[in-house]
Amino acid sequence: MGLRILITGASGFIGGRVAAAATTTAEAGHVRLLARRPLAPAAAGAHGAPPVETVRGDLRDPESLRRACEGIDVLIHCASAIGGDEETARAVNDEGTRSLVDAAVRAGATRIVALGTASVHGRGPFRAAAPGTLPIAPVSATSRTRAAGDRHVMEAGGTVLRPHLVYGTGDRQLIPGLVKLLGALPGPLDGGTSRHSLIDADSLAGVLLGAALSPRTQAGPYHVNHPDPVPVADLLAVGEALLADRAGPRRGPVVDIAEARSLLAAHPFALHHLDMLATDHWFADDRPWREPGRGPGPAFTEGFARHAEWYRSFLGPS
After folding, report:
1. Is the model more confident about 43 or about 154?
2. Angle (nearest 5°) at CA 77 between 73 and 80
3. What's the predicted TM-score (pTM) here?
4. What pLDDT, on a 0 to 100 scale, did the predictor assign at position 27?
5. What domains sit in the chain, N to C, each tagged with a CATH number?
Protein backbone atom coordinates (compact mmCIF):
# COMPACT_ATOMS: atom_id res chain seq x y z
CA MET A 1 0.00 0.00 0.00
CA GLY A 2 2.89 2.41 0.69
CA LEU A 3 3.44 5.10 3.29
CA ARG A 4 1.32 8.22 3.63
CA ILE A 5 3.75 11.13 3.79
CA LEU A 6 3.17 14.73 4.86
CA ILE A 7 5.80 17.29 3.82
CA THR A 8 5.80 20.82 5.24
CA GLY A 9 7.50 23.75 3.53
CA ALA A 10 6.68 22.25 0.14
CA SER A 11 7.07 25.62 -1.60
CA GLY A 12 10.51 26.22 -0.10
CA PHE A 13 14.12 25.82 -1.18
CA ILE A 14 14.55 22.35 0.34
CA GLY A 15 10.95 21.28 0.97
CA GLY A 16 10.12 21.65 -2.72
CA ARG A 17 12.93 19.29 -3.61
CA VAL A 18 11.81 16.76 -1.00
CA ALA A 19 8.29 16.94 -2.41
CA ALA A 20 9.52 16.34 -5.96
CA ALA A 21 11.57 13.34 -4.85
CA ALA A 22 8.73 11.89 -2.77
CA THR A 23 6.34 11.94 -5.71
CA THR A 24 8.57 9.52 -7.61
CA THR A 25 9.46 7.06 -4.85
CA ALA A 26 7.91 3.61 -4.88
CA GLU A 27 7.71 3.57 -1.08
CA ALA A 28 5.19 6.41 -0.99
CA GLY A 29 1.55 5.43 -1.18
CA HIS A 30 0.28 8.99 -0.89
CA VAL A 31 2.08 12.34 -0.66
CA ARG A 32 0.46 15.32 1.05
CA LEU A 33 2.07 18.76 0.75
CA LEU A 34 1.40 21.45 3.34
CA ALA A 35 1.92 25.01 2.13
CA ARG A 36 0.81 28.47 3.21
CA ARG A 37 0.16 29.58 -0.36
CA PRO A 38 -1.20 27.72 -3.39
CA LEU A 39 1.23 25.47 -5.23
CA ALA A 40 1.30 24.75 -8.93
CA PRO A 41 -0.56 21.52 -9.71
CA ALA A 42 1.71 18.50 -9.41
CA ALA A 43 2.93 17.20 -12.73
CA ALA A 44 1.50 13.87 -13.74
CA GLY A 45 3.91 11.15 -12.65
CA ALA A 46 4.83 7.89 -14.29
CA HIS A 47 2.52 4.93 -14.01
CA GLY A 48 2.52 3.78 -10.41
CA ALA A 49 3.60 7.15 -8.97
CA PRO A 50 1.86 8.04 -5.69
CA PRO A 51 -1.09 10.42 -5.71
CA VAL A 52 -0.20 13.93 -4.59
CA GLU A 53 -2.46 16.16 -2.51
CA THR A 54 -1.86 19.78 -1.56
CA VAL A 55 -3.41 21.23 1.59
CA ARG A 56 -3.33 24.82 2.81
CA GLY A 57 -2.09 25.37 6.32
CA ASP A 58 0.08 27.46 8.59
CA LEU A 59 2.31 26.49 11.50
CA ARG A 60 0.58 29.24 13.48
CA ASP A 61 -2.82 27.57 12.95
CA PRO A 62 -3.03 24.35 15.03
CA GLU A 63 -6.37 23.35 13.53
CA SER A 64 -4.93 23.40 10.01
CA LEU A 65 -2.09 21.19 11.24
CA ARG A 66 -4.50 18.72 12.78
CA ARG A 67 -6.32 18.39 9.47
CA ALA A 68 -3.08 18.07 7.53
CA CYS A 69 -1.84 15.24 9.76
CA GLU A 70 -4.95 13.08 9.55
CA GLY A 71 -4.03 9.57 8.46
CA ILE A 72 -0.31 10.14 7.90
CA ASP A 73 2.46 7.62 8.60
CA VAL A 74 5.48 9.87 8.04
CA LEU A 75 6.09 13.56 8.67
CA ILE A 76 8.95 15.39 6.94
CA HIS A 77 9.10 18.90 8.43
CA CYS A 78 10.99 21.42 6.28
CA ALA A 79 9.15 24.65 7.07
CA SER A 80 10.67 27.38 9.23
CA ALA A 81 10.83 31.14 9.70
CA ILE A 82 14.32 32.49 8.99
CA GLY A 83 15.20 36.04 9.93
CA GLY A 84 12.48 38.50 10.80
CA ASP A 85 11.26 39.31 14.28
CA GLU A 86 11.56 37.06 17.31
CA GLU A 87 7.80 36.85 17.89
CA THR A 88 7.23 35.35 14.44
CA ALA A 89 10.21 33.04 14.80
CA ARG A 90 8.87 31.74 18.10
CA ALA A 91 5.32 31.31 16.78
CA VAL A 92 6.52 29.33 13.74
CA ASN A 93 9.71 27.52 14.75
CA ASP A 94 8.94 26.74 18.38
CA GLU A 95 5.20 26.77 19.03
CA GLY A 96 4.28 25.82 15.47
CA THR A 97 6.62 22.83 15.44
CA ARG A 98 5.22 21.71 18.79
CA SER A 99 1.66 21.87 17.44
CA LEU A 100 2.67 20.02 14.27
CA VAL A 101 4.47 17.25 16.13
CA ASP A 102 1.59 16.87 18.58
CA ALA A 103 -0.85 16.57 15.67
CA ALA A 104 1.34 14.00 13.90
CA VAL A 105 1.69 11.88 17.04
CA ARG A 106 -2.05 11.97 17.69
CA ALA A 107 -2.64 10.95 14.06
CA GLY A 108 -0.45 7.88 14.55
CA ALA A 109 2.64 8.93 12.58
CA THR A 110 5.49 6.56 13.34
CA ARG A 111 8.35 8.52 11.74
CA ILE A 112 9.12 12.21 12.11
CA VAL A 113 12.12 13.81 10.42
CA ALA A 114 12.81 17.54 10.59
CA LEU A 115 15.21 19.82 8.77
CA GLY A 116 17.32 21.62 11.36
CA THR A 117 20.45 23.76 11.24
CA ALA A 118 23.95 23.49 12.72
CA SER A 119 23.65 27.16 13.71
CA VAL A 120 21.94 26.00 16.92
CA HIS A 121 25.46 25.20 18.15
CA GLY A 122 26.70 28.77 17.89
CA ARG A 123 29.79 30.17 16.24
CA GLY A 124 32.51 27.58 16.75
CA PRO A 125 35.24 26.76 16.06
CA PHE A 126 34.08 23.22 15.24
CA ARG A 127 36.54 20.67 13.89
CA ALA A 128 35.24 17.21 12.94
CA ALA A 129 32.49 17.74 15.53
CA ALA A 130 30.37 14.65 16.09
CA PRO A 131 26.62 14.78 16.80
CA GLY A 132 25.74 14.87 20.45
CA THR A 133 29.12 16.36 21.42
CA LEU A 134 28.29 20.04 21.05
CA PRO A 135 26.26 22.30 23.35
CA ILE A 136 23.18 24.09 22.11
CA ALA A 137 24.36 27.71 22.05
CA PRO A 138 22.32 29.72 19.51
CA VAL A 139 23.12 33.40 18.99
CA SER A 140 20.05 34.58 17.05
CA ALA A 141 16.29 34.47 17.43
CA THR A 142 16.04 32.15 14.43
CA SER A 143 18.53 29.68 15.88
CA ARG A 144 17.06 29.86 19.39
CA THR A 145 13.56 29.10 18.22
CA ARG A 146 14.70 26.40 15.80
CA ALA A 147 16.57 24.73 18.66
CA ALA A 148 13.32 24.79 20.65
CA GLY A 149 11.51 23.21 17.69
CA ASP A 150 14.17 20.50 17.50
CA ARG A 151 13.44 19.57 21.10
CA HIS A 152 9.77 19.00 20.32
CA VAL A 153 10.71 16.68 17.44
CA MET A 154 13.22 14.68 19.47
CA GLU A 155 10.99 14.43 22.54
CA ALA A 156 8.47 12.69 20.26
CA GLY A 157 11.14 10.21 19.15
CA GLY A 158 11.87 12.03 15.90
CA THR A 159 15.04 12.83 14.01
CA VAL A 160 16.60 16.22 13.24
CA LEU A 161 19.04 16.59 10.33
CA ARG A 162 21.33 19.61 10.77
CA PRO A 163 23.24 20.90 7.74
CA HIS A 164 25.71 23.75 8.05
CA LEU A 165 25.84 25.59 4.69
CA VAL A 166 23.51 24.66 1.82
CA TYR A 167 24.07 25.73 -1.79
CA GLY A 168 22.40 25.07 -5.13
CA THR A 169 19.85 26.38 -7.59
CA GLY A 170 17.35 28.49 -5.68
CA ASP A 171 19.84 29.57 -2.97
CA ARG A 172 19.21 33.24 -2.29
CA GLN A 173 21.23 33.52 0.90
CA LEU A 174 24.56 31.69 1.09
CA ILE A 175 26.35 32.37 -2.19
CA PRO A 176 24.56 35.66 -2.99
CA GLY A 177 25.44 36.85 0.54
CA LEU A 178 29.06 35.84 0.00
CA VAL A 179 29.21 37.78 -3.27
CA LYS A 180 27.71 40.83 -1.56
CA LEU A 181 30.29 40.58 1.23
CA LEU A 182 33.19 40.31 -1.21
CA GLY A 183 31.84 43.17 -3.29
CA ALA A 184 32.04 45.46 -0.25
CA LEU A 185 35.81 44.98 -0.07
CA PRO A 186 38.36 46.74 -2.29
CA GLY A 187 40.08 43.51 -3.29
CA PRO A 188 39.91 39.70 -2.92
CA LEU A 189 39.65 38.34 0.61
CA ASP A 190 42.32 36.12 2.15
CA GLY A 191 40.10 34.03 4.43
CA GLY A 192 42.86 32.08 6.11
CA THR A 193 42.84 28.30 6.51
CA SER A 194 39.40 27.51 7.94
CA ARG A 195 37.30 24.64 6.62
CA HIS A 196 33.53 24.41 6.31
CA SER A 197 30.87 21.75 5.92
CA LEU A 198 28.60 22.24 2.91
CA ILE A 199 25.93 20.21 1.17
CA ASP A 200 24.22 20.49 -2.19
CA ALA A 201 20.48 21.21 -1.88
CA ASP A 202 19.53 18.19 -3.97
CA SER A 203 21.63 15.87 -1.81
CA LEU A 204 20.08 17.34 1.32
CA ALA A 205 16.57 16.77 0.02
CA GLY A 206 17.45 13.20 -0.91
CA VAL A 207 18.80 12.37 2.51
CA LEU A 208 15.79 13.94 4.25
CA LEU A 209 13.50 11.65 2.28
CA GLY A 210 15.83 8.69 2.72
CA ALA A 211 16.00 9.18 6.48
CA ALA A 212 12.21 9.42 6.70
CA LEU A 213 11.74 6.17 4.79
CA SER A 214 14.56 4.12 6.30
CA PRO A 215 13.86 1.92 9.34
CA ARG A 216 17.53 2.31 10.27
CA THR A 217 17.22 6.03 11.02
CA GLN A 218 17.74 6.72 14.70
CA ALA A 219 15.99 9.24 16.92
CA GLY A 220 17.93 12.38 17.79
CA PRO A 221 20.21 14.82 15.98
CA TYR A 222 22.38 14.18 12.93
CA HIS A 223 24.87 16.40 11.16
CA VAL A 224 24.24 16.20 7.42
CA ASN A 225 26.93 17.56 5.12
CA HIS A 226 29.23 16.28 2.43
CA PRO A 227 31.97 14.23 4.17
CA ASP A 228 34.76 16.43 2.73
CA PRO A 229 34.99 19.85 4.40
CA VAL A 230 35.63 22.74 2.02
CA PRO A 231 38.70 24.99 2.43
CA VAL A 232 37.60 28.58 2.77
CA ALA A 233 39.77 29.47 -0.23
CA ASP A 234 37.57 27.25 -2.45
CA LEU A 235 34.42 28.93 -1.16
CA LEU A 236 35.87 32.40 -1.70
CA ALA A 237 37.05 31.45 -5.19
CA VAL A 238 33.51 30.80 -6.42
CA GLY A 239 32.37 34.09 -4.90
CA GLU A 240 35.17 35.98 -6.62
CA ALA A 241 34.40 34.27 -9.93
CA LEU A 242 30.75 35.29 -9.74
CA LEU A 243 31.75 38.82 -8.77
CA ALA A 244 34.10 38.98 -11.76
CA ASP A 245 31.27 37.82 -14.04
CA ARG A 246 29.27 40.84 -12.90
CA ALA A 247 31.92 43.56 -12.83
CA GLY A 248 35.14 42.20 -14.34
CA PRO A 249 38.35 41.05 -12.59
CA ARG A 250 39.32 42.98 -9.50
CA ARG A 251 42.51 45.04 -9.39
CA GLY A 252 42.68 45.89 -5.70
CA PRO A 253 45.15 44.34 -3.25
CA VAL A 254 44.27 41.23 -1.28
CA VAL A 255 42.50 42.00 2.01
CA ASP A 256 43.11 39.85 5.10
CA ILE A 257 40.53 39.09 7.77
CA ALA A 258 41.77 41.77 10.20
CA GLU A 259 41.65 44.49 7.55
CA ALA A 260 38.25 43.30 6.35
CA ARG A 261 36.88 43.58 9.88
CA SER A 262 38.04 47.18 10.02
CA LEU A 263 36.59 48.02 6.61
CA LEU A 264 33.23 46.43 7.50
CA ALA A 265 32.99 47.76 11.07
CA ALA A 266 29.76 49.61 10.30
CA HIS A 267 28.06 46.53 8.83
CA PRO A 268 27.19 44.00 11.59
CA PHE A 269 25.58 41.56 9.16
CA ALA A 270 28.73 41.43 7.03
CA LEU A 271 30.91 41.10 10.13
CA HIS A 272 28.88 38.09 11.30
CA HIS A 273 29.45 36.32 8.01
CA LEU A 274 33.10 37.31 7.91
CA ASP A 275 33.68 35.83 11.37
CA MET A 276 31.94 32.63 10.30
CA LEU A 277 34.17 32.33 7.23
CA ALA A 278 37.30 32.84 9.33
CA THR A 279 36.41 30.08 11.82
CA ASP A 280 36.34 26.32 11.30
CA HIS A 281 32.81 24.92 10.97
CA TRP A 282 33.39 21.27 10.18
CA PHE A 283 30.93 18.60 11.29
CA ALA A 284 31.50 14.86 10.98
CA ASP A 285 28.69 12.29 10.74
CA ASP A 286 28.52 9.43 8.23
CA ARG A 287 25.18 8.03 9.41
CA PRO A 288 22.97 10.05 7.01
CA TRP A 289 24.71 8.33 4.09
CA ARG A 290 25.34 4.93 5.63
CA GLU A 291 21.94 4.20 7.17
CA PRO A 292 19.59 4.83 4.21
CA GLY A 293 22.23 3.68 1.72
CA ARG A 294 22.38 6.98 -0.19
CA GLY A 295 25.53 8.71 -1.45
CA PRO A 296 26.39 12.28 -0.39
CA GLY A 297 26.58 13.59 -3.94
CA PRO A 298 29.49 15.47 -5.49
CA ALA A 299 32.11 17.38 -3.53
CA PHE A 300 31.80 21.17 -3.55
CA THR A 301 33.83 22.13 -6.63
CA GLU A 302 32.00 19.67 -8.89
CA GLY A 303 28.67 20.25 -7.22
CA PHE A 304 28.87 24.03 -7.50
CA ALA A 305 29.65 23.82 -11.22
CA ARG A 306 26.21 22.32 -11.76
CA HIS A 307 24.58 25.43 -10.31
CA ALA A 308 26.98 28.17 -11.46
CA GLU A 309 24.86 29.27 -14.42
CA TRP A 310 21.79 29.67 -12.20
CA TYR A 311 23.80 31.84 -9.79
CA ARG A 312 25.10 33.98 -12.65
CA SER A 313 21.56 34.49 -13.91
CA PHE A 314 20.19 35.22 -10.44
CA LEU A 315 22.90 37.73 -9.54
CA GLY A 316 22.75 39.46 -12.91
CA PRO A 317 24.97 42.40 -13.91
CA SER A 318 26.26 44.78 -11.27
Report:
1. 154
2. 160
3. 0.93
4. 83
5. 3-167+198-226+284-297 (3.40.50.720)
